[in-house]
Structure formats: structure tokens, C-alpha cells
Amino acid sequence: HREVMATPVDLLPGDVITITGPVGKSPQASAGGDIVAGVPSTSHHYVAAIVKENMPVQLAHSCITVNVDVNLKVTDDNGVATPLTNITSCERNITDVQITIAQLLTETFNASLNLAPPYYIRSNINANFTAVFSVAGPISLTFSFEPSVGTNYTFNDTGDYPLGTVPHQLTYPLTLTEDTYIATVFAQNKHNIISGPISNSTLLYVQNEVTTTWEVNELNSAGFLIMPQLPGIKFTDTSGAPFPTNASVTINWDDGVIETLPFVDPGTSQPLFNHTYAKGGYYNVTAYIFNIVSGFNVNCTMYIVEEILNFKITNNYLPTSGPTGGRPGFGKLKNQYPMDKNLSFIPFMTQGTVDYYIVINDTSGSEMFRFTVPNPFTPLAYPFQDYIGFETELNMTVIAVNAFQSVNVSLSLDIVGQIRVCQIDDFSIVTQKNEMKTFSITFESVGAGTCLIV
Asked: What SUPFAM superfamilies does the annotation carry (predicted)?
């Protein structure tokens, strides 16, 4: 019969087993039994111990070359037990790992980046992901990202990297899309199967760059009329690249105003900006679009036209001798001018940009002449002249023209070729002999080629 043994106990290599309690005895009697306590018996006795799990056996082995597996075989000298086989790996235990990230284009643009975490790189362009570790051999590196990019990137290296004074580095190029990530590197080999891989994480900002295909143009290619219209510019990217991440733009409007504004996608990928100009002119607008990883300069010319307000024309004539300034007309309406003198047209307006003037003969409807203003933005500085060599009563229209306006003013002139209504008067003042006598000579018009002989 069989006696119940004691409760099982755990064993370690080198333990001595001592069993106390009842011994088992064979149920049949037979000659040649066991001697128990010095007394022969007709029964066989036995003790039984059950080993519940495989018993570990420690064997010493020194690895000479890493990444070469050692085959182990354990046999029973008596040939009773089935031989046991297994494999042990000669690999260096990985104790630490760090992650660094670099991108040449980004660091060339901004040398202060990526010297320490957090890291910044441009999207959709290769960046170098580097694992830094003290000891390994071989090593399996896995780069993962949160939020997920859909896959983890695993690289296996069979090299030997013994512990030394300088850490080892392994670098791999990876490309990511725009987002903010927690980037983690996991390092392991067979030494880390039970304990799990060594890991390290860092914060990574991946930003869409400002491409060199951005352009800026006026919202209106013909320019802007101030004040009715508000001048503006529009930015476009001809490449169709993703819109820059967290970008700003610094705009120099070329009128003394410089401002930095958020560069935000309005939904069309074409940001618009407006600015109020005080005066007409050509303005060279420069803009610098930038974020932390990139930047690009663009420029355009703004054509600003001042609205013509309160346009008037006055006339005078230029004498051939005497004062160099113009002289006013004669007659009751002061609109009679000598036939042989250049007639001056003097513009006046409270504001305005004028490209040229057109003078129309109202009677015939024909264009008499036109005058191009040397500087359209200072039209008051440029009076213009015409020579009319025949007597006439002339009704004319002077038109001031710019890119947006044609503003008219009407004139009525009398071009006179002879003296009209000449009078001499001494005001009935009696003077003594040798005393200065004063005469007043007046004309309604001096006409052409007139000289005075007393």
C-alpha cells in the first residue's frame, strides 16, 4: 500500500532533501526483503519525492563573441534520463538608452533648435532619429510615436558596442507629418526579454514649413483708389504644399508702418491683409513669412491712387519780357488773353493723383492737346501751356485722368489779337510846370504784338 506524503516544498539547486514520516511497503511478502532497523523482513520498502517543476541547473560560461548562441546539452551518465538541450545567448546587457532628433535644414535656419529637448523638425522631410546608449550588442531599436503614425519603426543591429568612455549612437532617417508627438525609443536584445526593453521618451514638434513657393500680390492688379477703396495684399503658394504651422508674417508697408501678424489659413490657403495709406504712390511692400522651423521673404508693389477732389483750373499768360511769372487775363471776366502769348493752365485740387490732362474744344468736340504729368502724385507742381495763334472765343473742357477717374472742369476763354477799349486818364489833376504828371492807361485787352508809345 502507499502512504500519503507530506506537503510539497520548493527546492533550489544544492538543497538536501530530508523526508520524515511513514515509509511505503510492498503489499506482497517475498524472500530477500529489506532490513529494517537491523531486522530482516520479507517486504520491500521505499520513499518517494515528486519534483513539480523543472529544476534549474547553474552552468558557468564566459562569452567570447557577442551574438553567437551557445548550444547546451545535459545528459544522464547512466543513460536513463532523456538528454536535455537548450540555447543560451552571448549578448551584452543594455543598461540605458536616450533619443535625440536632428534635421539639417531646420538647424541651418535656426541654430538654436535641437540642442536639447523639445525637438522641432519640418514635416514630410527626413529627420535623423538617434539612439544613444552606453553598452549593447546586438541591439534592436524601435521608435514609436504618440499619437500613432500607424506603425512602429524597428531597426536591428548585430554589432558589438562594449562599455567605454563615450556613448554609442545609431541614427535612422524617418519622415513624419505635422503634429505634436511623444517620441519613444525602445532598446532590447535577449538579455531584456524578461525585464522588458529599456526606453526613453521626448517631446517632438513636427511643423509644416514655409515653402519658397509663396508669393504676394495686390488684391487689385490695377491698384487702389483712396479713400473709397481699402488697399490689400493676398498671399498664395503655387506648390500646393501644406499650410505653414503656427506661422506669422512681418509686413513692411513702405510708408513707415511695420507690423507682425498671425499668418492664418482663412480657408482658402490665401491669407489677406489690408492697410490704409495716407498718400498716393508706388509702395514696395516686403513680407517675411516665418515659423520656428522655416521662413521666406516675398514682396510686391502697391499702386495707390488718390481720389481727385475739388479739381479747378486757372489761367494766365506768359509775357515775352519783364517778370517771369504769369499774368492774369484782361476784361471784366479776366478771361481775355493775348493771341501771341503762351496760355498757362494752372491746376488746383485738395487731393488727387493725375496721370495726364486732356483739353477738349467744346465747339468741335476735338481734342486740342493732352499733357502727361511728370509725377502723377504731385500734379499741382506741374502747370501746362498751350499756344493759340488765332482770335477766338473758346469754350473748352479740361479733364484730369488717373487709373480710376476722369474729372472735368469747364473753361471759357477769349483769345484777343488787337487792343480793345484803350483809355488814358489824368484824373483831372492839375500839375505845375516841371511837376510829375501821372497818366493811367487802361485796356480791355492788349491784343497781340502791342507796344505803348507815349
From this structure: PKD domain
Burial class (CB in 10 A: 0-12, 13-18, 19+), 202: middle
Distances (CA, A) of 144 to 59, 150, 159, 183: 38, 9, 22, 6
Spelled out in words, what is the top-level CATH class assigned to the domain 214-306?
A: mainly beta
Dihedral sign, Cα of residue 240, residue 243, residue 244, residue 247: positive
**Cβ–Cβ contacts within 10 Å for residue 357, how many?**
21
Helix (H, G, I), strand (E, B) or coil at 192: helix
Contact (Cβ atoms closer than 8 angstroms) between residue 257 and residue 287: no
Q: Residue 435 has which C-alpha cell?
A: 511837376
Domain boundaries for CATH 2.60.40.10 within the chain: 214-306
> What are 280-322's pLDDT values in tens digits?
999 999 999 999 999 999 999 999 999 999 999 999 988 765 5
Task: Please say whether the beta carbons of 359 and 315 come within 8 A.
Answer: no
CB atoms within 10 A of CB 220: 14
Position 12, amino acid = L
pLDDT at 49: 55
What the block records as the C-alpha cell of 303 is: 499702386
State the pTM of this model: 0.73
Cell of 331: 476784361
26 CB burial (10 A radius; 0-12, 13-18, 19+): middle
Residue 52, pLDDT score = 54
- pLDDT < 50: residue spans in the chain: none
Distance CA 211, CA 243 (A): 9
Side-chain-facing half-sphere of 187: CA atoms under 13 Å: 27
Tell me the C-alpha distance between 64 and 311, whole Å. Answer: 101
For domain 98-207, the question of CATH label 3.65.10.10 is answered with: no
Q: Please give the Cα distance from 259 to 250 (Å, whole number).
A: 6
* Residue limits of CATH 2.70.50.30 in the chain: 98-207
Catalogue the long-range contacts made by 408-414 (C-beta closer than 8 Å, 24 or more residues apart): 409/311, 409/312, 409/313, 410/362, 411/313, 411/315, 412/333, 412/335, 413/315, 413/329, 413/335, 413/336, 413/337, 413/343, 414/329, 414/331, 414/335, 414/336, 414/337, 414/445
pLDDT at 246: 97
Instruction: Say which residues have a Cβ less than 8 Å from residue 255's Cβ, sequence separation at least 6.
Output: 277, 278, 279, 283
Which of 2.60.40, 2.40.50, 3.30.2010, 3.30.70 is the CATH number of 312-416? Answer: 2.60.40
Sign of the alpha-carbon dihedral angle for 385, 389, 392, 396: negative
Contact 379, 344 (CB under 8 A): no
